[in-house]
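for the recovery benchmark. tokens below, seq after
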């Protein structure tokens, strides 16, 4: 579910692009976004994919059961495209025709992804001092109201 739909109830073609990116990351990792939590890094599937990409280790995202049968350059391209699909702001996401083109053509250049939507932002107290430092993640909160008749 895209951030703009979850937060404001806004739906567009770019919401589908976000969902497609999540599905790509789920297929690559072999893990579902719902319920995924990486305790060492306090992140969900999107946050984990982003952290691995940012740290230069995106292939660590690949499910072990398919890793040996994958072509690394193709998997990297899929991860790259998926991250471009799950950008926080709809205008930063690709269009589906562009997603298709990027997946089938290695000649198509890929822009650099930004942090995806629904990535946590945390503050930690450092052990050596009483100062805080911020990690590059965001918190998105949501309120759900259930309406009942009188």
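predicted aa per position
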């Amino acid at each position: 579910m895209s951030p703009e739909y979850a937060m404001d109830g806004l739906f567009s073609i770019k919401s589908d692009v976000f969902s497609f990116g999540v599905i790509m990351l789920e297929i690559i990792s072999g893990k579902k976004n719902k319920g995924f939590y990486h305790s060492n890094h306090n992140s969900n599937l999107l946050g984990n994919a982003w952290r691995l990409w940012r740290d230069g280790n995106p292939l660590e995202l690949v499910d072990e059961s398919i890793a040996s049968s994958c072509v690394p350059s193709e998997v990297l391209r899929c991860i790259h495209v998926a991250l471009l699909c799950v950008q926080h702001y709809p205008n930063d996401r690709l269009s589906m025709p562009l997603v298709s083109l990027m997946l089938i053509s290695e000649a198509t250049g890929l822009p650099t992804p930004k942090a995806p939507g629904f990535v946590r932002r945390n503050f930690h107290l450092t052990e050596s001092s009483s100062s805080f430092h911020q990690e590059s993640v965001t918190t998105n909160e949501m309120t759900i109201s259930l309406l009942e008749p009188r």
